[in-house]
Amino acid sequence: MISPVTASLPTTDPGRSVLPAAPALPIAALEKLPAGPVGADPVWRLVAAFLVGYPPATARAYLGDLRAWIGWCTEEGVHPFTARRHHVDHWARHLATLPQPATGRPAAAATIARRLSCLSGFYDCGLREVELLEYSPVANVRRPAGLHHQLCPRPQPRPPRRLQDVQDAMGHADPRTTRRYDRSRHNLDRHPTSTRWPPNCNRTTGPPPE
Prior knowledge:
By secondary structure, the chain is mainly alpha-helical. It is built from 10 helices and no strands.
């Protein structure tokens, strides 16, 4: 039975050259993939196996990412299953420096990071789950610099706040009680019996031994 996801995939990428021939692949691993249309390259069957577990919106976004990668591989004359890390690095540089068809400008760092993350999951599926591939070209590929700080900005330090202000805001105590406590503690600290001990002395045990 042909998977609905696989049935929607093309045997070749429309508007592009034909994919180079796929390398020899393990028969047992190919049998784990969803059946595809006649003539479908195995890469599209792995795409279907990878996407089937995602919600529709995520699957559509990832399909667009994988189409872009497979199309770039086709133009470079390399099959996605024989691509190496330098191919992925070259593609990431291509995304970051050249205008993209959808926007007419280079891809943002967040877009590149998402595409590399999608690609990493795709190859991990072929490597670990299906056991179709022997390596992942995305392993150890660097993500765009500074992306973490764009997505997770460092919190700015806050000025210190008085205890009574915090308690007033949170409603943990009657403000009048808090202010009476502050005044009483201030007066206690100024009392002669409180100030005669040296700063390093414990009031309950007396001064430290000589």
